[in-house]
Amino acid sequence: MKKNGFTLIELVVVIVILGILAVSAAPRFLNLQVDARNATLHAMKGTINGAMGIAYGKLAIQGLENESRVSSADYPDLFSKCGTDEGDISNLCVFRYGYPAADWGTLPALVTNLSAVEGSDWFIHDQNTVSVSGGFMSSIKISPKGFRDTTKCHILYENWLVLVDTAMYSPPKLTVVPCD
Q: How many angstroms separate the CA atoms of 53 and 86, rounded?
């Protein structure tokens, strides 16, 4: 007489093996949310790089890429979303040697869904300017909605040194500080 089906021991062994597989695979699947956030940070970094390239191209066509400061108040037709009032820094666009300045108004005018208003999809915060020998360095942090941690999960945009003595300028640096 032939028996059909599985014995109790076989079922227990299969359940134990499946449990071991689930425990070893769970951390990888639980980390998908962090991976998605980091991928989003890298996508925004690419968007900002693209906007920087377009801005530099527009300024280079006008012969303004070597100017230490170009404001949308001086050239209102270059960027349609930039303000023209020097007193209103919320939407005034400032460029240093062809690249967007690290401030509250310039990048939001160039990149969609980026704002200095908390609660927006992408939030600019922690604007900082530091004087150094012969020039300065300014930076801002760009975080996705719901993340305002100053130590992780943001993009750091830095306008490096403008050396007054030698008129040298280093293009801006974008650094992704990953989420844990």
A: 24
